[in-house]
Amino acid sequence: MRDPAGFAVFYQQQFDTVLGFVTRRTDSPHLAADLTADIFLAALEQAHTYDARRGAPVAWLYGISRNVLAAHFRGSAREQRAAARIAGRRLLDDQDVSAIEGRIDAARDARQLAAQHAALSEPLRAVLDLVALDGLSVREAAQALGISAATARVRLHRARKALQRVDTLTTASLYAVSEARS
C-alpha cells in the first residue's frame, strides 16, 4: 500500500469494488467516475494511516469511500439549500442596485418630510395641504379656510420655512409646486 507500484496493484484489484459501491449510491455516470477518483485519491493520501492489524485493506477502502460520499452529499445538500434560498430571485446588476438605493433614499426623504409635515401646526398644515397637495391657489385655499388671502400667504410662507430644514431638494420641489399654483 505504501509504495506506488503496490498501490497501483491495489487500485486495479479494487477499482470495480469501489465503482460498484459508488454506482449503488448515485445515478450519474460522471459523478460516479469523479467520486471513484476522489476515493482513490483520498486512499493514496491516507495510505500511511493504513494499519493491517485493524482489518483488510478493502474494509479500510470502504471506510474512505463512505467518508468521501458523505462529504460529497453534505456539500450537495448545502448547495441545494442555498439554491432554494435564492430560487426565484434574480441577481442584481449595478443599475438595479442604484435604482433600489434611489428608492430607499426617496422613501427616507418622504418619511422625513411627512414627520416635518405632521409637526406643523394645524393652520399651517391646512394651507399647505390645500395649495401643495390639492392644487388650489392661495386665494382659493384662503376662501376654503375662511381666512384672508394675506393670512393664507403668511401661513404658507411659515409652512415652507419650517419644511426647509428637512431636505433642500424636497422642499424646493414642494415650493415650486405651491408657487406655481399661487
Outline the structure in words.
The structure is a single chain. The model has no long low-confidence stretch (mean pLDDT 83). This protein folds into two domains: 4-86, Orthogonal Bundle (Rna Polymerase Sigma Factor, Chain: A); 106-181, Arc Repressor Mutant, subunit A, CATH 1.10.10. The protein contains eight helices and no strands. 78% of the residues lie in helices and 0% in strands. The longest helix is centred in the middle third of the chain and has 30 residues, at 57-86. The protein is an all-alpha fold and 182 residues long.
Architecture of the largest domain, according to CATH? Orthogonal Bundle
Q: How many domains comprise the coordinates?
A: 2
CATH level-1 class of the largest domain: Mainly Alpha
Question: For the report, how would you describe the main beta sheet?
Answer: none
Mean pLDDT: 83
Query: Helical region count?
Result: 8
Which structural class do the helices and strands define?
mainly alpha
Fill in the CATH topology of the largest domain.
Rna Polymerase Sigma Factor, Chain: A
* Cα shape: rod-shaped
- CATH superfamily of the largest domain, called what? RNA polymerase sigma factor, region 2, helix turn helix motif
The H-and-E topology, N to C, reads as HHHHHHHH
**Number of E-state strands:** 0
Unreliable sequence segments: none
What is the rounded Rg? Answer: 38 Å
End-to-end C-alpha gap? 95 Å
* Content of β-strand: under 5%
Output the keywords.
transcription regulation, single chain, 182 residues, mainly alpha, Arc Repressor Mutant, subunit A, transcription, 78% helix, 2 domains, Rna Polymerase Sigma Factor, Chain: A
